Amino acid sequence: MGGFTPIFFRKGDMSEKRLIISDFDGTLLDSNGDLPPGMAEYLNTKMDAGHRLTLATGRMLSAAVKPLDGLRLTLPLITLNGCYIGLPEVFHQALDNQLMCDLYEGVAALRASVVLMQRDKAYLKGEKYMPVQSLMNWVANIEFIDTLELTHCSDTTLVLINGQEDVIRNYHIEAEKVVKGRAGVFSYPSTRYPPMWYLEIRPKKANKGIAVQKLIEYLELDEQDVLIIGDYYNDLEMFDHAGLKAAPANAVDEIRQRADYVSPLTNDEGAVKDILERLL
Question: Which of 37, 114, 115, 262 is the most exposed place for a label (fewest CB within 10 A)?
Answer without folding.
Answer: 37
